[in-house]
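FIELD: query
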Amino acid sequence: MLALLLAACRAPGAGRPALSPSEPVAAGAAGTPAGPLLAPGQQSGDLRAWLVSTPPQPASGTAQIEMVIAGTDGQPVEGARVTYDTDMTNMSHGLYEVQAEPVAPGRYGARVHFSMPGPWRIIASVERPGQPPVRLRFEFGVKIR
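FIELD: result
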């Protein structure tokens, strides 16, 4: 059934059924995350994005955070400049921005430090040549080490 849905989504001229950005299409499809999601996916305009983390749920300390970015056509977005603005949602720790680097087609990663457990958020800024900047907000929990 999922294979038929994916085929219909890629058929030229076919109407695209709405796909929830919190439920990425089948693992391995172009521009979708492989691995556990850190937070529900987000969509803004022609971009869909998901956060993944190593470890899957970060603990206080440092974690590798990667954002998978795809167009609504499912193709990985390459050549973007991606910045993570990271802070707690209930107690600001001040400005902490990290420049993400491309690690694979449509995948941008950075090491991020979480100073304590609790509710956190990342506001990801995505800048592409010739396109207006996009800001995506992801909220998640950080556990005790």
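FIELD: remark
The chain has a mean pLDDT of 80.
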